[in-house]
Every structure is written in structure tokens, then in C-alpha cells.
Design brief:
With 376 residues, this protein is α/β, with parallel strands linked by helices. The chain is built from 14 helices and 12 strands. α11 links the parallel β11 and β12. The mean pLDDT is 93.
Amino acid sequence: MPGKLEGFGVYTDELLKRMAIENPSDTFTFYFDRKFDTCYHYSDNVTLRSIFPPARHPVLFYIWFQMRLKQKLLATKPDVFFSPDSFMPLGMHIPSVITIHDVAYMRFSDYIGKSHLAYYQRYMPKFVAEAAHIITVSEFSKKEICHFYEVDPGRVTVIYNGVSPRFKPVDLVTRQQIQNQYSDGKPYFLYVGAIHPRKNIARLIEAFDKYKQKSKSNMQLLIVGRHSWHFDDVIDAHKQAKYSQDIRMIGYVGFEKLPDIVGSAHALTYVSLYEGFGLPVIEAMACGVPVITSSARSTGAVMAEVAGDAAITVDPESVEDIAEAMHRVSEDVSLHDQLCKAGIDQARQYSWDISASKTYGILKNVSQLALEAFVQ
């Protein structure tokens, strides 16, 4: 859905367009669960297909994947099927590769609707067992998948996400324009992502309040992202904050504006409780924006793996720890400059070109192995 892409959507878009354009002798069919936009017709070797019904409920997941999509695939018999978000038709005897970004539904089951959780519990073990190969986006997620599903590590390949070249340092004029538009011309800390309990935004708001009480600075906090689920605690924290007038709930921002908003921030504050990768971390680093994120010691915090030594890491369950990190990065100019430079260097490790090339290599290999097995 153009203009509404988040993590999985960005991943899918960035990989598929590169795979299609870089492999003109191969053909691709992209299946959508609703009317598609022709912007996804990346090249002449791509065919777009829409299949009813829109799959936005577990019952519709079953109908769409196990009936409608399966029927189409059995009729066309592709060399390989790729699912960028882990769901797949079962019993096709068509080699399939799936990407499992994380297993948050195992770690945070209390925050998932009963019907969705039941679907994950029933079908994810089947998807894992039947997939010819599994891709994931971090060493942390690989360990989680192998732990929960008792998977042979040899069946799981880690391919890191990339960062769009549109995320880059902004000039002073752009920075001032963005600040004028979103934060009354004042510097700001930034959170980017969906708003739900796993993202730990209520504690971030509390920490910002504590930071403001100590520093008395004019710093703002911008929260950019759609309200996803179970966000009442975030709303309450915002209302109860002493400095609530300095906290801006911006809502979802499209990709046209997002790189400038990220690049104009004083620092990114991304202290999620659990991630498979944490894409905003490297996007901010690519912009030369310091990052405060969750330490490797916290449960499910992969961001320390992704950020390396180029970020300030905190205990995401400690309001005091988060507030102190905000104070450090806002008061210590040399630390701020050091993090800017280190982040740019760290972000160079992550490339969508490399991610797409490695992913396509796995698809080709799985397809070839299936063909050899068939011939034998």
C-alpha cells in the first residue's frame, strides 16, 4: 500500500524491486490481497496479480493462503515461492522460502489478539517445518527461531536489512525547516515506528519527562508512527507528563518526508523491548543522528547487535537509564559528534543491494536443488 509502508512493507519493496530489475531473464509474479498500485510493476519481467479476499483476519489468512493463493500457485507451478513475512501455502510440493523477522508473538503473547495468536500457534510450526529454507534478519532472531521451533541452524540464513540511500545527513536549512514545521523551531528527540506495548513508548515518555525536569532544556520529543494496538498506556503517559506540551504525537509519516525528519533529529530514542532488527536504528545512523537504543543485556534487544559500538545502549525497562542517556547526548557536544560519525560508519555495513542479492541467491539455490531432486 503506497505511502503506508512500515517494516515488513519496506523490506518487501526494497528486496523485490532489486531482485526483479537485476534479474531480467527471470520472471516474477507478485500476489496482492487487494487492488494493487502499478508503482510495484518494477520492470517488464514482473506480473501483478490481485487475489480476493483481503487477508486482514486469521480466517481470511487461511482462505487467502491455503485456498486462493495455493490454487494459483499449483496452476502456474513456479520454480520457487518466496514469502517476505513468513506465511505460506501448505502442501504444495513447490519449494518455498520464507522470511521470519522475529518471534515476538512468542515473547509477547499477552499483547496479541486471541484469534491472531491462535493462528500463529497453529500454523507457524507448519510453515517452519515445510519451508525449504528460512531467512531471518539478525543472529538474535536466528537463535530465537531455532530455540522455539527446534530448527536445524543450517536451514536458517541471516541476511541483514539494508538502509535506503535517501537516509543521509541533512543540511542546516532543511533541519531548520523541519524543526519549524514539527517542533516549533526547537531541537527534538525522535521515535519512529508503530505504537504498541513492545515499543516501550510509555517509558520513553516518562524518561523524557524526567530528563526535562533535570535539564530544563527546550528539547522536544517527536513520536512518529501510527497507533497500532494496546496504546492506551502511551496516551495516558502523554496526558500525565509534566512536559506534555513538549511531546508531539505526529502520526504516520510517509517516506517522502521521513528521511528529513530523521535527519533533523538531535537523537533517535529507540528503546524497544523486542525487535528482530530495528530498522530505524540504522536509518538514523545513516543520517548522522546519534542513537539511544536497548542494550544486549535486555530481553530480546537485538538493536545492540545492529548498532555495534556506535550507539548509547540502555536498559529499556529503566526510566532513569533512558533519561540519563538523553541528558548525556544533549549536554555532551563531543559525545554527540562522536556518535554522529560512528553511526555513519556503522550504517555503511547495511545495504539493500547486498540483502537482495543474497536473498535471490537463496531462492535460486533452493530452486536448483528442487530441480535436481526431481530429475533424480
